[in-house]
């Protein structure tokens, strides 16, 4: 399938113009598929597409400290990476739902679609049924396992006109803060009541709001930065990163047994308990960089449910509640949204987070149409009668979570700028911060699942990722501790080895 022509999707809105509020939106499968597809995008992709928006007048959006992390990759010299490819894959993160998202009416992922190659000689035998399976690869210099010729023919893709994640004919209402629910009078009435609407006369209907890709980018932005995404989207409120809720809970999740811990040191400003910087080995930097490869839906699934959430998390919660069959097309697609897997090449079995690997992006092929002597195909993970089996022989170069090479020492600032460590650069940075040396102490962090979940949340919502994410895991200055009023058990994850400057 060639680059999809810029299309538009439509929304119906019910608004209260006096209060500048969108009460709810009514949407079909085209729009909801796009909204749900946000969950399949790796964090690195979200940072990249929001920073490279085609509309130059738009504000450059920063997702917490993730933009600094992404920029660190492009600023780090190639020599610090295991291979050049390790750096390249971080700068052009790919989604494991790429095949599905090609069919979206508007796909905001900017990565060039992967090409798939099959055997020119064997495809006819496959079509006629002589071969039960066909070999396919993302590489055209791999030999066919039937006849040993190279897989030279690129498959032309077609759009089968089907919806992607939700049933084609389904209809939804969407609340201002992005809860997506089946469209029926009960849900609409529930939204009206929760908005405190008493007088229908105050409401106005916007029948067909056209949305193109720049509006979808804007909506993605609002889903992170706004508490009322649809109102801020429609009424064009200027979004500021300060509007991100400053939630600093001590997120606790069940530790996976025997999960490994990473040890590194942080410099804490005693008077403020702020973490000024961390100095660490390649293992902590590899953890941080791997976060760019994790899809948003998986990131959200790592947070426990009992915290004040972002609007983007409401989209995730909505998918959890929708029935398979009636609203979502299959359990496999539901899981792809709630717990999207990592592409094989990014997958690291010893990762602190329980990540899963997507081995194959597709398993089945269907010829959907023929035009001008060319066949057009659709590929899929789900099997139906008209689809035939594909054997994937794509070469996979596994990075296995090791992006930067060791032994190297790195310095990580509070807002996640990663640079190679030298004593000079470290002291120069501390001097820049104008913190007196006697106000700085060194502490050791033993970084496991709980610390990682807290840091992930802080990285998503704040530019003080280390301070906010690790605040429960450092020993606090006694004066501060009484004012913070946290029981000492909150800090049980800390093993302190205090060193002074
Ligand atoms: Zn062949």
Automatic annotation (TrEMBL):
PANTHER family from the xrefs? OS01G0153900 PROTEIN, OS04G0594700 PROTEIN
Q: What is the protein name given in its UniProt record?
A: Uncharacterized protein
């Amino acid at each position: 399938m060639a680059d999809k022509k810029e299309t538009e999707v439509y929304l119906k809105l019910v608004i209260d113009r006096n209060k500048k509020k969108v009460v709810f939106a009514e949407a079909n499968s085209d729009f909801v598929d796009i909204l749900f597809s946000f969950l399949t995008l790796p964090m690195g992709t979200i940072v990249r597409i929001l920073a490279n928006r085609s509309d130059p007048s738009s504000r450059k959006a920063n997702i917490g400290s993730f933009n600094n992390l992404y920029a660190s990759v492009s600023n780090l010299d190639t020599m610090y990476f295991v291979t050049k490819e390790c750096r390249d894959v971080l700068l052009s993160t790919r989604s494991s739902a790429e095949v599905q998202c090609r069919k979206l009416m508007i796909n905001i992922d900017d990565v060039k679609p992967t090409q798939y190659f099959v055997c020119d000689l064997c495809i006819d035998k496959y079509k006629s049924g002589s071969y039960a399976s066909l070999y396919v690869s993302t590489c055209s210099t791999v030999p066919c396992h039937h006849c040993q010729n190279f897989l030279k023919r690129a498959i032309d893709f077609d759009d089968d006109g089907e919806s992607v994640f939700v049933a084609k004919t389904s209809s939804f209402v969407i609340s201002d803060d992005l809860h997506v629910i089946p469209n029926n009078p009960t849900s609409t009435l529930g939204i009206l009541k929760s908005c405190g609407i008493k007088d229908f006369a105050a409401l106005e209907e916007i029948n067909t709001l056209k949305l193109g890709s720049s509006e979808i980018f804007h909506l993605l932005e609002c889903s992170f930065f706004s508490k009322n995404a649809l109102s801020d989207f429609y009424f064009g409120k200027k979004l500021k990163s300060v509007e991100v809720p400053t939630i600093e809970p001590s997120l606790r999740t069940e530790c996976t047994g025997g999960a490994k811990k990473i040890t590194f040191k942080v410099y804490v400003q005693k008077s403020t308990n702020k973490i000024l910087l961390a100095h660490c080995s390649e293992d902590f930097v590899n953890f941080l960089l791997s976060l760019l490869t994790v899809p948003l839906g998986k990131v959200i699934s790592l947070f426990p449910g009992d915290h004040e959430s972002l609007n983007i998390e409401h989209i995730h919660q909505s998918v959890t509640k929708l029935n398979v069959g009636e609203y979502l097309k299959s359990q496999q697609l539901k899981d792809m949204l709630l717990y999207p897997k990592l592409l094989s090449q990014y997958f690291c079995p010893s990762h602190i987070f329980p990540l899963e690997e997507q081995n194959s992006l597709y398993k089945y092929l269907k010829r959907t149409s023929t035009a001008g002597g060319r066949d057009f195909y659709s590929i899929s993970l789900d099997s139906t009668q008209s689809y035939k089996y594909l054997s994937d022989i794509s070469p996979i170069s596994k990075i296995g979570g090791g992006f930067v090479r060791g032994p190297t020492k790195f310095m990580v600032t509070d807002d996640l700028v990663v640079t190679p460590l030298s004593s000079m650069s470290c002291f120069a940075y501390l001097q820049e911060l104008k913190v007196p040396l006697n106000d700085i102490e060194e502490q050791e962090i033993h970084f496991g699942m709980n610390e990682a979940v807290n840091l992930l949340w802080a990285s998503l919502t704040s530019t003080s990722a280390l301070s906010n994410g690790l605040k429960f895991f450092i020993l606090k200055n006694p004066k501060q501790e009484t004012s913070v009023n946290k029981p000492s058990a909150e800090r049980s994850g800390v093993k302190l080895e205090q060193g002074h400057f």
